[in-house]
Amino acid sequence: MSRSSALAAACIFIGASALTVQSAYAEILPGGSDGKTGASGKSEGRALTSLVTFTGSTGGSTSANSGSFTAAGNWTPPACWYEPRAAAEFQKYVEGFYESTVNYPGQHSYAKTAAGQFRDMYKDGEFKNYNLDKADEGAFWVGVQDENRLDEPGAWTCSKLPFWVENGNPPNVENAITPDILAQLAYNQINVPETRVTLAPANNTKVNLATWAWLDSATFKPASVTASLNVAGVNISATTTATPRSLSLKPGTKDATLHPGSGECTFQDGRIGAPYTAGSADKTPPCGLTYLRSSGSGTYKLESTLTWGVSWTGTGTGGGTLPDGTFGAAQNIKVQEIQAINR
Fold first, then answer.
1. Cis peptide leading into 77, omega within 30 of 0?
2. Taking a C-beta distance cutoff of 8 angstroms, is the pair 90, 132 a contact?
3. Could you tell me which of 51, 142, 271, 341 has the fewest CB atoms within 10 Å of its CB?
4. Alpha-carbon span 332 to 202, nearest angstrom
5. What sign does the dihedral 219-221-56-37 (CA atoms) show?
6. What distance in Å separates the CA atoms of residue 215 and residue 232, rounded to the nearest whole number?
């Protein structure tokens, strides 16, 4: 194995190599870790994982009736990126990786060679004892991945070997961590409430009777997630906020009239739609629909999709906007052939 091939093979253990190399060495790692990494803020086994942390309206802080919205236009945040490691931390990682590789029972000789050459590059080669004598002057930058997106080709594009960057100099590599990238990573962590509208009448309605639809203003309010990184002299953060913007209704049949006619109910007076009140039977709801034909012995599938506008702010920047997100739900509506009803 050539030096360059060995180094490339070693590099997969920090989650920064091609899928073909990663697959070839999958059996080398105890527990089948494959050198995968993720934004968990800790180190798992031999792999360097991201030290980015998330707080706010994340999956761990919301109910089961919630989820992550889908970005418009098939946009996705980066699946891998580069972030710094202090010299001492990087030394500890490489030495630990080397020791566990060469001492693992039955380990292949080419894996030991790769681990040794990878170690030599930072211990006795270009960087001389991991640049510990320059520890206050800079940091090593390493590639990490989103652990939830390891099946995507984009997760394996941060293939540059760990490199040294002097303090105050921006890393000369694409996807080096910035507040902008933190904001994009936070986007994928935002959880929003289930888009289940309140209806009147609820679930069972009548032909030619307007069905009112609205969202609980106490539940459907802005949701924010803050992504932060504070390591090796880099201390940055970004807060990404999703704000409910409009509700789209699809009645599940062409025999229905939407209110408004576009089917898009926008926010008015801090809420979408309005609750039905006594005496409003003859009024047109600001958000809702009227079924024109019975559903017979079955039901219609009413789909409700809420569009969320997304913006962000970050360290040293005014921030900006990110693609809208959508999150929807469906509920079955039975429509009967009766012209009037007492609510």
1. no
2. no
3. 341
4. 10
5. positive
6. 45
25 φ/ψ angles, rounded to the nearest 5 degrees = -105, 10
Supply 287's token pair: 């958000």
Q: In the beta sheet, which residues pair with residue 145?
A: 80
Listed in sequence order, the residues at least 6 apart from 76 whose beta carbon sits closer than 8 Å to its beta carbon are 154, 188
Q: Which of 113, 150, 201 is nearest to 23 (CA)?
A: 150
- Mean pLDDT is lowest, of 30-34, 55-59, 203-207, 244-248, for 30-34
pLDDT at 342: 54
For the stretch 155-190, pLDDT in tens is 999 989 999 999 989 999 999 999 999 999 999 999
pLDDT digits (tens, 9 = 90+) for 88-118: 999 999 999 899 999 999 888 888 999 999 9
Are β-strands 198-200 and 210-214 bridged in parallel, bridged antiparallel, or unpaired? antiparallel
Q: In angstroms, rounded to a whole number, what is the distance separating the alpha carbons of residues 30 and 34? A: 9
Number of Cβ atoms within 10 Å of the Cβ of 154: 15
Token pair in block for residue 338: 């009766």
Residues 6+ apart with CB under 8 A from 125: none
